[in-house]
Write a structure and sequence with these properties.
Distance between the termini: 46 Å
CATH architecture of the largest domain: Roll
Mean pLDDT: 91
Helix content: 25-40%
Number of helices: 10
CATH topology of the largest domain: 2,3-Dihydroxybiphenyl 1,2-Dioxygenase, domain 1
CATH superfamily of the largest domain: 2,3-Dihydroxybiphenyl 1,2-Dioxygenase, domain 1
Bound molecules: fe (ii) ion
Radius of gyration: 21 Å
Low-confidence stretches: none
CATH class of the largest domain: Alpha Beta
Strand content: 35-45%
Strand order of the largest sheet: 2-3-4-1-5-8-7-6
């Protein structure tokens, strides 16, 4: 029962990157977010720059170090590359949610803090998630300015022209963990946040002949928060999860799915804005045309033109597409999703998706296992 924690929904996601100024430009230009706030040396924050970007319910904070002593940002980026440092859940009462989590085994990162200035205060606390990721509880009810104390209007009036993307908010956030860690983290979510596991993809459910993974999806009781957790599974070649763990140097957030009410328009706009997506073969749409019971509102030609995937469930269907990794390393990416009655994650698309990812892995030289990995276990 989510009322135990008073969960209202996703709040912000903070990315640690090499250059916040340049990454913020990409998020504004490519995804169509608005640069709504800034914190840095000019606002009294000496060691880092943070840009606050918003669109509908989306709130992203992009942070980079501006001094060599900014160890948490520099250490994170040095090890993982650009990635998600923390994601936040808005709750009624931060102290209550944090107390419930820690009493049920959550690892403390930050005890409840009152961040205050003349505009009011924000309450925040954090617990550990995966290796180097944090889950934050936040409440802004008593703050009437930009994001949190320390943030101000953007320094310059930056006029970034782009196509309207129509993206709305976060649908789900996915973590990648090492082999044999998935159950540990699913139990951690369920115990510390009173979530439950509602999908359990076992060996053979997800994968091609070459690469495979296991996945469990945990959610809050009202499904406001949904978080799949993936771990690699043995197959002939290296799975995308193994590649992630190797290249990210640990476990962390793999992708964020962003909802839209018109995915054809959204993907068309994102492509015009320069976002790169996974390649889906035309044969996928030939098979789609052969499906007898496929009744969807969209034209298959439109889906094919923009390479949008469709998966049908008993309760409805969903449309989705995945970007290529957005940074230098093959780690973090975005998904765009439109749900039309379906509550799953596109299981019917996994085959096409995996084959597309394997092609990219092959190009990067990360598909074949190293000779040591091919040795029989002793
Ligand atoms: Fe997803």
């Amino acid at each position: 029962m989510s009322e135990i924690l008073g969960i209202r929904g996703y709040d912000y996601v903070e990315f640690y990157v090499g250059s916040a100024k340049m990454a913020a430009y990409w998020y504004a230009k490519a995804l169509g977010l608005k640069i709504s706030g800034y914190a840095g040396p000019e606002t009294g924050v000496r060691d880092r720059n943070s840009f606050y970007l918003t669109k509908n319910k989306l709130k992203f904070v992009i942070t980079s170090a501006v001094q060599p002593g900014c160890y948490d940002v520099l250490g994170f980026v040095n090890q993982h590359g650009d990635g998600v440092k923390r994601w936040a859940i808005e709750v009624d009462d931060v102290e209550k949610a944090f107390s419930y989590a820690t009493q049920h085994g959550a690892v403390m990162i930050k005890r409840p803090q009152r961040l205050e200035d003349k505009h009011g205060y924000v309450m925040e606390a954090a617990i550990r998630l995966y290796d180097d990721t944090e889950l934050v509880y936040v409440n802004h009810d008593h703050f009437n300015h930009i994001f949190r104390p320390g943030f101000c209007e953007p320094r310059q009036d930056i006029n970034i022209k782009c196509e309207e993307t129509g993206i709305l908010g976060i649908d789900h956030i996915v973590g990648n963990v090492r082999e044999n860690e998935m159950n540990l983290w699913a139990t951690y979510f369920n115990k510390t946040m009173n979530f439950d596991t509602f999908i359990d993809f076992k060996a053979g459910d997800i994968g091609t002949r070459y690469s495979a993974l296991l996945s469990k999806v945990v959610r809050s009781s009202d499904s406001k928060i949904k978080s799949p957790i993936n771990e690699p599974h043995a197959a002939e070649k290296k799975s995308q999860i193994e590649e992630y763990i190797e290249q990210y140097y640990g476990s962390g957030v793999q992708h964020i799915a962003i909802e839209t009410k018109d995915i054809v328009k959204t993907i068309a706009a994102l492509r015009k804005n320069g976002v790169e997506f996974l390649t889906i073969p035309d044969t996928y749409y030939d098979l789609m045309r052969q499906r007898d019971n496929l009744q969807i509102d969209e034209k298959i030609e439109d889906l094919q033109q923009h390479k949008i995937l469709c998966d049908k469930e008993s309760t409805g269907y969903l449309l989705q597409l995945f970007t290529k990794p957005i940074g230098d390393r093959p780690t973090f990416f975005f998904e765009f999703i439109q749900r039309k009655g379906a509550e799953g994650f596109g299981k019917g698309n996994f085959q096409a998706l995996f084959e597309s990812i394997e092609l990219d892995q092959k190009l990067r030289g990360n598909l074949d296992k190293s000779p040591e990995e091919l040795l029989p276990p002793c």
